[in-house]
Amino acid sequence: MTNPSSGSFLLFIVFQSFGQHGRELITSELALRILSILSEEQFLPKMDRASLNGTLDNVVIKVVPMENLNGRKLVEAGNLCERRNGRGVDLNRNWSVDWGKKEKDYDPYEENPGIAPFSEPETQIMRKIAISFDPHIWVNVHSGMEALFMPYDHKNRTPDGLPSQRMRLLLEELNNVHCHKRCMIGSGGGSVGYLAHGTATDYMHDVVRVPMSFTFEIYGDNTATLKDCFKMFNPVDHTTFKRVLNDWSAAFFTIFKLGPHQIDVHSKAAVSSMDKWVSIDEYFDGYLMGRRNRYGKKMEVLEVGMQEIRTYFRLFLLSSVLLLFMFCSRISKTGRQIVSAIPI
């Protein structure tokens, strides 16, 4: 969504994902609330239309309200603790950065990373959107606690340099104004108490090169038992439900307002094409996904042979290099023989 009155070429781009884990129902409710405000069906307290329109000038917002539809269906059918998708894979462990590594406390029911990076249609679609959309800010919204996380999830530290400092400054502002200083701030891996491998936020930071990549945890009830997943991840009374939606909707509109001042949009637009190159694996994943989208179920067999295709392609490249080397060596030897046979 964007303000159609904007005539500027350089736009500030925000990409948001909600409902990545089925049991975190409140996150999709927040997405719908944000969309209703953007469409002017509802308004935030203390925010008028003029302020809203001014904030949205030159801002483009892409929202995925419910990334894990099949997981949500399982929860609504009564499996209130389910976080994985319909194939039993944790979508926030299925990305390629540090994929597949398992900690000592690894629980396959909670963190199944899938058979390969991007083995799931949901993560394939999200990756394709991210690369084509090329956002300035990425926010992956979860519940289970109150926290504002930045990379890394698979390391016990945050990135180095000025971009990391800018991310932390923005998170501190959100914590002070909207989280009432309750939210934990820092890297996901260094703050939660465990490392997570193959997450969306680490991929957005390391591969897509999103200047500001975040994971927000918008609600958690630490008094709930482990078996009471609905209460642990979602508010159960109307007052708390309304407060969560109001506070976090306002936080996102603060991002829309302050984000362009934290990031140099011009420098992002001037990133060289070299930074956008992808690996052979990335290329084939995208190619096969596109073929499946075009031909439907008939192309699902390609998923099984993806590893073989990659292997054959690498062997083809290697053999081509060797043949070229042999050819050049033979030409070089032949040239020396011809020269030596010419009388002086």
From TrEMBL:
Name the record gives this protein: Peptidase M14 domain-containing protein
Active-site residues, record numbering mapped to chain: 217
Keywords: Membrane, Transmembrane, Transmembrane helix
Domain Peptidase M14: 1-258
Similarity annotation: Belongs to the peptidase M14 family.
Any one GO molecular function term: zinc ion binding
Coiled-coil ranges per UniProt: none
Keyword Transmembrane helix: yes
One term under GO cellular component: extracellular space
InterPro entries reported in the protein's UniProt record: At5g42320_M14_CPD (IPR034269), Peptidase_M14 (IPR000834)
Any GO BP annotation: proteolysis
Transmembrane segments: 311-328
The species this protein was found in: Gossypium raimondii
Cofactor(s) this protein cannot do without: Zn(2+)
Source taxon at top rank: Eukaryota
